[in-house]
């Protein structure tokens, strides 16, 4: 178990990162903290929202502040899997084929507007996100250490989108929405400098070498038996209640615990609490869980999570 002092030591650079990010993405501290918790939990992040609210900016910002090697893939309907993974090209000098890695070979990959690509191209991300490796032309190639995907998608009601299948949604540890800024934040945004220029002037708060150590600390945050029982009770309710056609899987339960541990680390604690589970529940569970009678997704993640929290008593 981590000592309280060690957790507090970890909080300082993370707090500075959140502070700097909050100066770029205005009025969205909770979403920034969730995105960072997702990374600390070694998960992948899906940002779903309308165009122009800062989804791509958040991905650029995290890569800059974390000092990670960054690649952006702009998904379109005519994109092929080879455009993501890479392709072998014949080399005259060697007399053989040489593999040219695609943009997936980076530490932080932004899959921008992922649901504008066809299902065949979307599936090129599945192995990479689950196994952190890709297989092409009979060879398996390991992706860089710390591999992390941030995917953005536009609402499925918009023209030219291909909904992500459940199997791919399940690969994302969290799904968040940024939403419109409040009036004060938008006024500051309109008066301020260009966000891309501001990001370019920032210095990393962490190094790629420090990040794995923080991820290990997050994984070692203590979780009590009572908290595990609470997670099991939440998951069991989704499997037995008529409110949910399909319940949460064991993978979802593991994701919920991993995210809660990362959230506790951000809070500077060496142990997770039920409040940590409740804080991450909307982002971790709801994209894996559709409420009955909500086929078009009108109910917000917060509303579905709130009803689940209300139905399951605390340990």
Layout: helices, strands, pairs:
Layout: H1 4-22, H2 29-40, E1 45-48, H3 55-66, E2 70-74, H4 81-85, E3 86-91, E4 96-101, E5 108-112, H5 119-122, H6 124-131, E6 133-136, E7 139-142, E8 148-153, H7 166-169, E9 174-176, H8 183-191, H9 195-200, H10 210-219, H11 225-240, H12 250-266, H13 274-285, H14 301-311
Parallel strand pairs: 1-8, 1-9, 2-5, 5-8
Antiparallel strand pairs: 3-4, 6-7
Strand content of the residues, in percent?
A: 5-15%
Low-confidence stretches: 1-5
What order do the strands of the largest sheet run in, or round the barrel if closed?
2-5-8-1-9
CATH class of the largest domain: Alpha Beta
Percentage of residues in helical conformation: 40-55%
- Fill in the CATH topology of the largest domain: Rossmann fold
Distance between the termini: 22 Å
Main sheet, how many strands, which sense, barrel?
5 strands, parallel
Q: What is the CA-based Rg, rounded?
A: 20 Å
Order of helices and strands: HHEHEHEEEHHEEEHEHHHHHHH
Question: Which of globular, elongated, flat, extended, rod-shaped describes the shape?
Answer: globular
Annotation field: number of helices:
14
Helical/strand content category: alpha/beta
The count of β-strands is 9
* Reported CATH architecture of the largest domain: 3-Layer(aba) Sandwich
Counted up, domains total: 2
Q: Can you give a write-up of this model?
A:
- The chain is α/β, with parallel strands linked by helices and 315 residues long.
- The chain folds into 2 domains: 17-205, P-loop containing nucleotide triphosphate hydrolases (Rossmann fold); 221-315, Helicase, Ruva Protein, domain 3, CATH 1.10.8.
- The chain contains 14 helices and 9 strands.
- It has helices at 4-22, 29-40, 55-66, 81-85, 119-122, 124-131, 166-169, 183-191, 195-200, 210-219, 225-240, 250-266, 274-285, 301-311; strands spanning 45-48, 70-74, 86-91, 96-101, 108-112, 133-136, 139-142, 148-153, 174-176.
- The strands form 3 sheets. A 5-stranded parallel β-sheet has the order 2-5-8-1-9.
- Helix 1 crosses helix 2 (29-40), helix 2 (29-40) packs across helix 12 (250-266) and helix 12 crosses helix 13.
- The longest helix has 19 residues, at 4-22.
- The two termini are 22 Å apart.
- Mean pLDDT is 86; it is low at 1-5.
